[in-house]
Write a structure and sequence with these properties.
- The complex is a heterotrimer of chains A (122), B (97) and C (309).
- Chain A has 122 residues and is mainly alpha-helical.
- Chain A has one domain.
- Chain A has helices spanning 2-29, 33-57, 62-92, 103-121.
- The mean pLDDT of chain A is 84.
- By secondary structure, chain B is mainly α.
- Chain B has one domain (2-79).
- Helices cover 79% and strands 0% of the residues of chain B.
- Chain C is mainly alpha-helical.
- Chain C has a domain at 107-303.
- Chain C is globular.
- Classes of the chains: A mainly alpha (122), B mainly alpha (97), C mainly alpha (309).
- Chains in contact: A-B, A-C, B-C.
- At the A-C interface, helix 3 of A face helix 8 of C.
């Protein structure tokens, strides 16, 4: 039984830290701000969640377990909110995503950002 | 296993720091600092387990909240004109070409 | 931005050195509040400073001489952590051995800060209070009521951008305040105490003020009330000292505060930490409200100039 606990915790920790490192590589190699935010937002929240679950399995007493549950809930709540806020602020302030030379999407993006600027100025 | 996980998170923090220093736009740097903050929370929890002192989890909770508040503050106060990303030259280049 | 990273690296360094309370305070204050206040100050003043016309050579000279003298003075100090240093052979064993019997709380940092060296902590609280008074004296903004409606309408028009964050913040703020209270009263047994709790409480109020606008925050928490709380914190701290004088002991001697010396110590420490927490929270909130209120006034004046011309 003890052995199963250690194996489960080790597996969670391994997958979690692997995801975090992948997110770190992603933030260096992706070409544009919005793609980098995809890399960070997704892998960070999931990796943090798995690492905290791995720690919860091997925690020694109830108080430590409760505090880890709180950190997990906070991370799950705060991570996606921060990604949303960053993306919205970047878009409203005019940072345009780097697209291929595809005219439909470019016109849509310009129309959307013009509407945003008009509604935030008036 | 815990020590290996600590090293992996350290590697991720260094990668985020590189992007934070070299990011071309302002928002890249904000993203890198946010990622650094979340990895710090994980690092503090892991170090607490490695060193056998579970009181560090209080610091992890505080740090997660402070990270959130800092990012919101940066984005709220960067609305002024000095930080506005100038896409006017992108548009003129796109239309001219 | 990089200030935040520096604060975090220091916090990790302290954690690695096994100094939990210091890491706590560094995470809360260094990485949080000071980068926040620096950011508001930069948006008020602009990113580049005006170049001065004369180079201050003589000031540089004086600074180099003084720094050199100070460095020369440190050569005489004992090595960090040496066994025969006087601090390690007299002061530290006394605290570590006797703290549990004399005061009876497990956290030695709190017992040193609040009971053995209560007078130094009094000085720190008065310094924080003075900083608050300084900011009030220099930057105080008298609010004119007819501007409030205009500011409120500006804030309402921004609500679409911040809708998701506002909902998440409404869920988080009670939790943050409860956590601040937990840190305040748990300072005897784990890391924590008055300073950290005050900073966390102030961070919750500042988050609310940033996202919902200063006029809404002023309706929730009156500025006069906050100034009163700041003064009350220092007064509470000082009164504990005076009560112990009236009961026959020294200034800040908690043994005489009740029949049993250990209970007296506990009572004294709780009251002192409460005073510290009140003052720190109120002063941080005051500083932020004054900085941000000044900035809004600047924005309103520049908008009025644009409309008129």
């Amino acid at each position: 039984m003890d052995f199963v606990i250690i194996i489960a915790s080790g597996l969670c920790l391994f997958i979690g830290s692997f995801l975090c490192v992948v997110g770190g590589i992603g933030i260096l190699r992706f070409p544009d701000f919005y793609t980098r935010m995809h890399a960070v937002g997704v892998t960070e929240t999931l990796g943090a969640g798995l690492i905290l679950i791995g720690l919860m399995i091997i925690s020694s007493d109830l108080l430590v377990f409760a505090k880890l549950v709180m950190v997990l809930l906070l991370t799950l709540l705060i991570g996606p909110t921060t990604s949303h806020v960053l993306a919205k602020a970047a878009f409203v302030n005019g940072l345009a995503p780097k697209l291929n030379s595809n005219s439909h999407e470019k016109n849509d993006i310009e129309q959307l950002s013009n509407e945003e600027n008009d509604s935030s100025n008036s | 296993m815990l020590i290996a996980a600590t090293f992996a998170i350290l590697v991720a923090m260094v990668l985020a720091l590189i992007r934070g220093i070299a990011g071309p736009t302002f928002y890249d740097r904000v993203l890198a600092v946010n990622m650094f903050g979340t990895k710090t929370v994980l690092m503090i929890s892991l170090l607490g387990f490695v060193m056998g002192r579970p009181e560090f989890l209080d610091i992890a909770i505080v740090y997660a909240l402070i990270n959130f508040i800092s990012v919101i503050a940066v984005l709220r106060y960067s609305d002024s004109n000095q930080f506005k990303h100038n896409s006017a030259d992108d548009k003129s280049r796109g239309k001219g070409a | 931005m990089l200030l935040g990273i520096y604060g975090l690296l220091s916090a990790i360094f302290f954690v690695a050195m096994d100094a939990v309370d210091v890491a706590f305070t560094e995470a809360a204050v260094g990485a949080g509040i000071s980068s926040l206040l620096m950011l508001v100050a930069i948006t008020m003043t602009g990113r580049n400073e005006n170049t001065t016309r004369h180079k201050p050579i003589s000031a540089l000279f004086i600074v180099i001489i003084t720094g050199g003298l100070l460095l020369y003075g440190t050569f005489d100090m004992p090595y960090f952590g040496a066994v025969e240093a006087s601090i390690n052979s007299h002061v530290v064993p006394r605290y570590i051995n006797d703290s549990m019997q004399e005061i009876g709380i497990p956290n030695i940092v709190t017992s040193v800060l609040a009971s053995y060296r209560a007078f130094d902590t009094f000085g720190e609280v008065v310094v924080i209070f003075t900083a608050g008074i300084g900011v009030l004296a220099l930057l105080s903004v008298g609010r004119r009521p007819k501007d409030d409606d205009k500011i409120a309408s500006i804030n309402d028009s921004m609500s679409e951008q911040y809708l998701v964050v506002r909902i998440v913040t409404k869920m988080l703020i009670p939790f943050i305040m409860l956590f601040a209270l937990y840190v305040q009263f748990h300072g005897d047994f784990g890391p924590g105490g008055g300073f950290q709790a005050g900073v966390i409480f102030a961070a919750a109020i500042i988050l609310y003020a940033m996202l919902f606008g200063l006029s809404t925050a002023n309706k929730v928490i009156n500025q006069t009330f906050i100034e009163l709380m700041a003064a009350l914190g220092v007064l509470l701290y000082g009164c504990v000292g005076i009560v112990s004088l009236l009961n026959g002991g020294n200034f800040f001697d908690f043994n005489v505060l009740s029949n049993d010396p250990i209970a007296g110590q506990h009572l004294g420490i709780i009251l002192i930490e409460l005073g510290v927490g009140c003052t720190v929270a109120s002063v941080m909130i005051l500083i932020f409200f004054n900085f941000a209120g000044r900035k809004e006034l600047q924005n309103n004046n520049s908008n009025k100039n644009e409309e008129s011309c």
